[in-house]
Design goal:
There is one protein chain. With 226 residues, the protein is of the alpha+beta class. Helices cover 52% and strands 16% of the residues. The chain is built from 7 helices and 5 strands. The protein has helices at 7-22, 27-41, 67-73, 106-109, 143-190, 194-208, 212-224; strands at 47-54, 59-64, 93-96, 115-123, 127-135. The chain has a 5-stranded antiparallel β-sheet, with helices on both faces. Strand 1 and strand 2 form a beta hairpin. Helix 2 (27-41) runs antiparallel to helix 5 (143-190) and helix 5 (143-190) packs across helix 6 (194-208). The chain is elongated. 32% of the residues are buried.
Length: 226
């Protein structure tokens, strides 16, 4: 993949990036691929991370290219400070031209990170999911970087939604199989039909205030135990 592409090369690079994102099988692998591609695609980017920001300004990194990103992103901002990324609650992009002169990002300068380009991936009332590119020199991100970053985050968002749906479907199939196994065990133990075994499982789940899936796992695990 060409670094810092433009024009026709940019279209090809974004197409290749989208393909690589959609080839991932889980949300974690999608996130890891996305941060690596950010450094390849976004002009000026040297490090990248994807994090979740809560309403209380707590921030947790989900994927990172380097440990310096985790150090920069995890935790809470210093008391009395308004971090630069708080602006993402009202705008799709927040940037820092030079962390040494920005009170909301001066802690980054101590890590050697001078420039920041932060873009929203997902947003609701309680939390934000954010893709952030970092550079070690000031004013590293220009209009070209912003344009490429916004195009790329659109692809990342779609890939994350697809990976989430795949994981949910996979979990649903596993849950169905697990409940089916537990129902079969109860049929044999209690000498009842499938409908009666399933009803018994549901009643026990309600009585013990345990999720049906978890109760089914207990039954299957107990059956398989020596």
């Amino acid at each position: 993949m060409p670094r810092f592409p433009a024009g026709h090369d940019l279209a090809e690079a974004l197409t290749d990036a989208a393909r690589r994102l959609h080839e991932t099988s889980t949300t974690d692998s999608t996130l890891d691929t996305a941060v690596r591609l950010t450094v390849d695609l976004v002009p000026g980017a040297e490090h990248a991370g994807i994090s979740v920001i809560e309403r209380d300004n707590r921030r947790q990194t989900l994927a990172w290219t380097d440990e310096v990103v985790r150090t920069a992103e995890d935790g809470l901002p210093a008391p009395g400070k308004q971090p630069y990324w708080q602006r993402l609650w009202t705008a799709p992009v927040a940037g820092v031209e030079d962390s040494e002169g920005d009170e909301g990002a001066d802690d980054l300068s101590g890590l050697g990170l001078r420039s920041v380009l932060s873009l929203r991936l997902r947003a609701d009332r309680r939390r934000l999911t954010v893709l952030t590119a970092y550079a070690r020199k000031p004013r590293a991100f220009d209009e070209s970087a912003l344009r490429v970053g916004r195009l790329f985050t659109a692809h990342v968002g779609i890939a994350l939604d697809s990976a989430t749906v795949r994981e949910q479907l996979t979990e649903a199939m596993r849950t169905r199989d697990l409940i089916g196994q537990a129902t079969g065990i109860l049929m044999e133990r209690m000498d009842i039909d499938a409908a009666g075994a399933f009803d018994s499982l549901v009643r026990a789940s309600q009585r013990e205030n345990v999720k049906l899936r978890d109760l089914a796992r207990r039954i299957v695990d107990a059956q398989e135990a020596p």
